[in-house]
Write a structure and sequence with these properties.
The structure is a single chain. The chain is of the alpha+beta class and 173 residues long. It is 47% helix and 23% strand. The strands form 2 sheets. Strands 1-2-3-4 form a 4-stranded antiparallel sheet, with helices on one face. It has a 3-stranded antiparallel sheet with strand order 5-6-7. The chain is elongated and about 70 Å long.
Length: 173
Amino acid sequence: MQLAASKTAQFLTQNEFNHVELDDNVLVVSSHTLEERIPFHVWNGKVAVKRGLLWSGLQFFAHESEGRQQSWLVQGLSLASCRKFAKHAVQAYQVWHEKQCRDLFSVLPQWEQSISGFVRQPSFVSHSSLNSWLTGAYDELVNMDMTLEEARQRFLSVWSLSFLGLKTPTKLC
């Protein structure tokens, strides 16, 4: 799905983003001179519809990093089309995010069991055993198309609950 500003709005916004497209788990925002691709793992799923006097806009937000949050504003769009696109984009993000949750939670019990086994061992854990487990965990993250930072970003609170022995919520996404 894509949405573009009218010719008049494009002229008035000049170098501002005036086109947005949803392309396979990536938001593409562009102007005449610039195009930015925003993967879903960068976008936090939040979008604000900005209502204006002549036209409206969509503002997409990134995950907060080091106390700062980046956003992208696409201007010159009709209010009705903004609302429709925002709803469609958020639904696509939710589908992607739920798949990420399911994938991660399918391997999380195995990881917890392995870590618990390392902790309960009465002797020193060999480097080869630990490296083997780390390589396997990394490979599983790669298969899920997720980095460790992304997993930490989304699920740190769930992991801490789990490692503390507290019951994790059944619906986490």
